[in-house]
């Protein structure tokens, strides 16, 4: 695959980015297109390894290694190197319905498992993936492909995130009549209201949704199952139902002062901003503004980084991101060998922007929040913290303890909690009397996706808990296969 000596001849380069300071003045995509020549060179680095571990996703020590949608990565890398872009697009779409979503917003576990990554920078797989699909749209190769034959079966998909969209696309290919229900006013789930506009522009989501509509899928927005549409009626009206509602129950931080005004969940902040931006370019004021404020983001993950980038675009006064963990090494450690996901220090787009605009990396490590303190009007004005240190207990488990004398008071008029999710919302699950696992997710075996109710399936984060876009697409596709088998007795879906 690729050029036989490409991995020796060429250095890794990824999709170029706009200037970190200039891009904070707008909400446009922070990345620039990679040229065809650049993509071909990166494709040449794919090294014809004996076992391409990049293309098979699995969980290793709680983290994803390789691609859960089993992307045919070496094949389309080689095709790009050879200049056969249309064939590369066909191979890309064979295993992934939405390479534009993963090419823009996936953390690329495929690259973490790349064989070249054992001792060299891995192949720039995600950048090549994005180049292929964008060229496909530019050339007009991505067209609606409605099924030639329709069955009389009707399937309802609850939730229009990546799992729901993937399930809908696959079942529609099988000829079933598919209706997708979304409680928000726009299709896309967290693709739309969870990932900021500069990271995944809504026009990219809408472009794909428009194609799915032309292929025959019906989308119903502003419709919450169990509230606007009774679940019993839904099950009566459709031959099968797939629940893809995500895992949107926030993990909270129960400390003194949590009730103060100005302390919000990260998703409240991000969703309101995106809706106002799409509705009115923020002119309606229906969002939580960081303008002129000292902002504290609690949580060191991707959602926290999105909060950084959004706050900077609002024009915040200062910005700090608390990370409860220690600063990671720039290289893999001995207990994190290939092909595990590399647990290393990363500088993401929001960190670059914070440094460019405010002069420094915003992260503070090994910090524990002790309490929030408010003013006379009940608004947050301070965050009190203490530093922690790590030690090993008698069983060798990593533990943390507070360091006396390291207390600190941080000024803050806006605090954003970005510490993850605890599982799916429970109202519909309880109403349908669905069985759940110990983590409150719908109980449905991986690979089968059947719930305890006949004809009801579950896929994505609502089944597995908070996870990656690629796992959601994987589960949506596989749940569609099992749903088709249930409806027809056999299936041709992969």
What does the model show?
It contains 18 helices and 18 strands. The protein is α/β, with parallel strands linked by helices and 494 residues long. The protein has 3 domains: 6-138, Fumarate Reductase Iron-sulfur Protein, Chain B, domain 2 (Orthogonal Bundle), CATH 1.10.1060; 154-249 and 422-488, FAD/NAD(P)-binding domain (3-Layer(bba) Sandwich); 252-419, FAD/NAD(P)-binding domain (3-Layer(bba) Sandwich). The protein is globular and about 70 Å long.
Look at the structure and give the mean pLDDT. Answer: 96
Oligomer description? single chain
> CATH architecture of the largest domain, please?
3-Layer(bba) Sandwich
Number of strands: 18
CATH homologous superfamily annotation of the largest domain? FAD/NAD(P)-binding domain
**Cα gyration radius (Å):** 23 Å
How much strand content do the residues show? 15-25%
List the helices and strands and how they pair.
Elements lengths: L5 H4 L10 H4 L12 H9 L13 E3 L2 E3 L7 H9 L3 H11 L3 H7 L3 H4 L12 H14 L15 E5 L3 H12 L3 E5 L8 H4 L8 H13 L3 E3 L10 H7 L2 E4 L5 E2 L12 E3 H15 L13 E5 L3 H13 L3 E6 L25 H10 L4 E3 L1 E8 L5 E13 L5 E5 L5 E4 L2 E4 L3 E3 L3 H5 L24 E3 L2 H4 L4 H20 L6
Parallel strand pairs: 3-4, 3-6, 4-5, 6-18, 8-16, 9-10, 9-16, 10-11
Antiparallel strand pairs: 1-2, 7-17, 12-13, 13-14, 13-15
Helix pairs in contact: 3-4, 3-8, 4-5, 4-8, 5-8, 6-8, 9-18, 13-14, 14-15
Question: Descriptors for this entry?
Answer:
single chain; 494 residues; alpha/beta; Fumarate Reductase Iron-sulfur Protein, Chain B, domain 2; FAD/NAD(P)-binding domain; 5-stranded parallel sheet; 18 helices; globular
């Amino acid at each position: 695959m690729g050029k036989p000596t490409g991995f020796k001849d060429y250095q890794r380069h990824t999709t170029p980015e706009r200037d970190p300071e200039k891009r904070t003045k707008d909400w446009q995509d922070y990345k620039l297109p990679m040229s065809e020549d650049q993509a071909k060179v990166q494709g040449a680095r794919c090294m014809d390894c004996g076992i391409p571990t990049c293309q098979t996703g699995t969980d290793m020590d709680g983290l994803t290694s390789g691609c859960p949608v089993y992307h045919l990565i070496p094949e389309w890398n080689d095709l790009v190197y050879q200049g056969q872009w249309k064939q590369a697009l066909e191979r890309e779409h064979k295993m992934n319905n939405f390479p534009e979503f993963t090419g823009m917003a996936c953390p690329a576990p495929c690259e973490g498992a790349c064989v070249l990554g054992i001792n060299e920078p891995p192949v720039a797989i995600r950048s090549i993936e994005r180049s292929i699909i964008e060229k496909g749209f530019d050339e007009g190769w991505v067209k609606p492909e409605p099924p030639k034959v329709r069955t009389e079966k009707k399937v309802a998909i609850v939730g229009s995130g990546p799992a729901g969209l993937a399930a809908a696309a696959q079942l529609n290919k099988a000829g079933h009549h598919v209706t997708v229900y979304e409680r928000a006013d726009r299709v896309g789930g967290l693709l739309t209201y969870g990932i900021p506009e500069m990271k995944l522009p809504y026009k990219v989501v809408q472009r794909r949704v428009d194609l799915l509509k032309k292929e025959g899928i019906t989308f119903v927005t502003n419709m919450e199952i169990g509230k606007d549409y009774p679940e019993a009626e839904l099950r009566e009206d459709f031959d099968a139902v797939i629940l893809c509602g995500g895992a949107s129950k926030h993990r909270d931080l129960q400390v003194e002062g949590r009730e103060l005004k100005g302390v919000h969940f990260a998703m409240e902040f991000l969703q309101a901003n995106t809706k106002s931006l799409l509705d009115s370019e923020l002119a309606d004021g229906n969002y939580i503004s960081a303008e002129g404020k000292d902002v504290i983001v609690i949580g060191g993950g991707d959602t926290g980084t999105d909060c950084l980038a959004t706050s900077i675009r609002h024009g915040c006064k200062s910005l700090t991101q608390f990370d409860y963990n220690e600063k990671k090494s720039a290289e893999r450690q001995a207990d994190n060998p290939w092909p595990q996901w590399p647990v290393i220090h990363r500088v993401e787009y929001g960190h670059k922007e914070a440094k460019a605009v405010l002069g420094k990396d915003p992260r503070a490590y090994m910090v524990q929040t002790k309490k929030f303190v408010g003013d006379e009007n009940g608004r947050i004005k301070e965050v009190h913290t203490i530093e922690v240190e790590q030690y090993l207990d008698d069983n060798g488990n990593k533990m943390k303890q507070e360091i006396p004398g390291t207390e600190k008071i941080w000024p803050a008029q806006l605090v954003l909690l970005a510490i993850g999710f605890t599982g799916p919302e429970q109202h519909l699950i309880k109403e349908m009397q669905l069985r759940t696992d110990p983590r409150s997710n719908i109980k449905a075996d991986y690979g089968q996706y059947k719930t305890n109710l006949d004809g009801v399936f579950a896929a994505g984060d609502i089944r597995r808990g908070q996870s990656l876009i690629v796992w959601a697409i994987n589960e949506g596709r596989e749940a569609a296969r099992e749903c088709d088998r249930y409806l027809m007795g056999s299936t041709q879906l992969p």
